[in-house]
Amino acid sequence: MSGRRVGFCLSDKKRRRMNLDAFAVFCEGHGVEVVEIDLTQPLAHQGPFDIIVHKLSDVIVDAEHDSQSQQVLANFQSYVSAHPSTVLLDPLPAMKQLLDRFASYHIMSELHKTLRDWDICSPLYLVIHSAGDLPSIQQALMTQGISFPLICKTRVAHGSLSHEMSLIFSAGGLADIRPPCVLQSFVNHGAVLHKVFVVGDRHFCVERPSLKNFPSGPCDRKTIFFNSHQVSKPESNSDLTALDEQMPCLPPPSSEAVAALVRELRVQLGMALFGVDVIVSIHTHTLTVIDINIFPGYEGVPQFFSSLLSHIKSVLDKQASDSPESTQTTGGPSAAPTGL
């Protein structure tokens, strides 16, 4: 893999969390050059790149309303289109759909069809496009069999606001929602979250704290507003994660089921760098998928550097061995377009 150039396109925050400087040193020891891409400058002057690893979430979200971000995204896409031999981790359309919980939750809701042998599901949910009258929302919940309590999450799955969530316990609490948003059935899971970190064909399971159990059904409890980062980070210490009752330990997710879930999502998403949040229901022990995340932090994965470099190498080796007619290879097992 000597002489390979890998471009990284990350926000300052993501760059620090990943410790890109340390990764660059690690890669240098394996004959791979890491180049930090400056999106404010022409990419043609910074290339060529054998592969570009990116998390353009900020740019994609801002491009919805900001002309400068639109231009930055257009310039990036123009460069990728003009250099079809440059591999993109991950395809922009795949990343864009995971930024929209309306789209990603639909993917999650279909998993039980393809993974029926593994007893994998996702909670029932309702999409709220705009503020309407509460009785109609309540009727929609009843029609779809979605019961309280509910977790309310923003439609956009990126940025600080995406971590601001709420627990709603009754029809009266629906007045607290701020559309567009998703209302997701809350599944009691013993205050344990399993984060599955995916790097190509490898994945790692890390246990994190999570929300405690709540009684099923509506009650007069006021809406609880919380930040998911403050609840489920490794260092989190919140009253919301402290169980009110003694309960036996839940069995961990089946490693075979998690592997099947990862394989299916890699096909469905066409991506290589993502995370899946799963819980185990205290009542049914069913493996329940509650969120999918783009290029997560990989905290608690000591093999991340070696796994990422190994995947980069395997993708480029595959590209080199492909026929001359093959012009684009993506991070996932199935080809996906790089256009928006």
UniProtKB/TrEMBL annotation:
Reaction(s) this enzyme catalyzes, per UniProt: 1D-myo-inositol 3,4,5,6-tetrakisphosphate + ATP = 1D-myo-inositol 1,3,4,5,6-pentakisphosphate + ADP + H(+); 1D-myo-inositol 3,4,6-trisphosphate + ATP = 1D-myo-inositol 1,3,4,6-tetrakisphosphate + ADP + H(+); 1D-myo-inositol 1,3,4-trisphosphate + 1D-myo-inositol 1,3,4,5,6-pentakisphosphate = 1D-myo-inositol 3,4,5,6-tetrakisphosphate + 1D-myo-inositol 1,3,4,6-tetrakisphosphate; 1D-myo-inositol 1,3,4-trisphosphate + ATP = 1D-myo-inositol 1,3,4,5-tetrakisphosphate + ADP + H(+)
Cofactor: binding details: Binds 2 magnesium ions per subunit.
UniProt KW keywords: ATP-binding, Isomerase, Kinase, Magnesium, Metal-binding, Nucleotide-binding, Transferase
PROSITE patterns found in the cross-reference section: ATP_GRASP
Keyword Kinase included in the entry's annotation: yes
Region feature Disordered, mapped onto this chain: 318-340
Domain ATP-grasp: 112-321
Metal-binding in keyword set: yes
Residues at which 1D-myo-inositol 1,3,4-trisphosphate binds: 14, 55, 163, 195, 293, 297
Top-level EC class as recorded in UniProt: transferase
Residues annotated as binding Mg(2+) 2: 291, 293
The EC number(s) this enzyme carries: 2.7.1.134
Pfam families from the UniProt entry: Ins134_P3_kin, Ins134_P3_kin_N
InterPro entries the UniProt entry points to: ATP-grasp (IPR011761), Inositol_tetrakis-P_1-kinase (IPR008656), InsP(3)kin_ATP-grasp (IPR040464), ITPK1_N (IPR041429)
Cofactor: Mg(2+)
A GO cellular component entry from the record: cytoplasm
Superkingdom, natural source: Eukaryota
An MF annotation (GO) of this entry: inositol-1,3,4-trisphosphate 5-kinase activity
Binding site for ATP: 101, 153, 184-195, 210
Function description: Kinase that can phosphorylate various inositol polyphosphate such as Ins(3,4,5,6)P4 or Ins(1,3,4)P3.
Family affiliation: Belongs to the ITPK1 family.
Subunit description: Monomer.
Protein name stated in the entry: Inositol-tetrakisphosphate 1-kinase
Originating species: Zoarces viviparus
